[in-house]
Write a structure and sequence with these properties.
mainly alpha, two-stranded antiparallel ribbon, elongated, binds zinc ion
């Protein structure tokens, strides 16, 4: 089985096959710009550099790995972490709103829920990084990618969490919550596959493993904080599984 080369951070990436590329286009004095072609698959390294941002977003929404590779490696987005922070704030706010339905929704609850969300997110990414490193050592076909690229990919794939605020405004229902959870997990799996070339099964195991670690941590922590009085609502209010029942 062929082993993919390690992706150097200073390189771009072919959106079709993930092969590192030195440039996306070449500039000639007489003929203007010429798109670079991949030395491996012979397709344009990144056709999206000529596309409108709306098309790129729609392709990401359609779960095309090429669109994720463009966003993560070639798009020049320097602050993907800001998307992660906004997702974290959305998660905290929707949980606090849910909590306030069964309690007085005190300000202290907001800070406690924010603490739980931050810790859950930290454990989620730690779990994914550990499983990702393990996968890279077990499966030779999986590309070795840096921790920062892995975190960036999963953050980009978490954009579905932003819809939680819209769902809150439109009336949180079982179906809308399920759709948001499904979209987020599918997007995270596809974004992870886009950078690692892992199979659907392996990528699902990595994302599901991180989600499980995060969920168990959240349940145990929120139960402890609820019992000690730091959280005025029942700890079950904060978790999707209990929310559905
Ligand atoms: Zn290629």
């Amino acid at each position: 089985m062929m082993r993919h080369p390690t992706l150097n951070e200073s390189y771009y990436s072919c959106i079709e096959c993930g092969e590192p590329a030195e440039c996306l286009y070449k500039q000639y004095r007489s003929n203007g710009l010429k798109i670079s072609y991949c030395t491996r698959c012979e397709h344009p390294v990144d056709k999206y550099i000529e596309y409108d941002a709306t098309i790129i977003f729609l392709d990401a929404l359609l779960q095309k790995q090429a669109a994720y590779r463009h966003i993560i490696f070639n798009g020049g987005f320097k602050a993907i972490w800001k998307l992660g922070v906004v997702c974290l704030l959305c998660d905290t706010f929707t949980r606090w709103t849910r909590c306030s339905l069964t309690s007085r929704g005190a300000e202290q609850d907001l800070y406690t829920i924010a603490f739980i969300s931050v810790l859950e997110t930290f454990i989620f990414y730690c779990g994914i990084l550990c499983l990702s490193v393990l996968l890279q050592n077990v499966e030779s076909s999986v590309k070795k990618v840096s921790c920062s690229s892995t975190v960036d990919a999963v953050m980009v794939g978490s954009y579905g969490q932003l819809l939680a605020i819209a769902a809150l405004i439109w009336g949180n229902s079982y179906i809308s919550t399920m759709l948001i959870v499904a979209l987020t997990i599918i997007s995270q799996v596809q974004a992870y596959r886009a950078i690692s070339m892992a199979s659907m099964f392996s990528a699902t195991v990595v994302i599901a493993g991180g989600t499980l670690c995060s969920h168990v941590t959240g349940v145990l922590l929120s139960e402890a904080l609820s019992n000690s009085g730091w959280l005025s609502c029942p700890h079950t209010c904060l978790h999707h599984v209990s929310y559905f029942t």
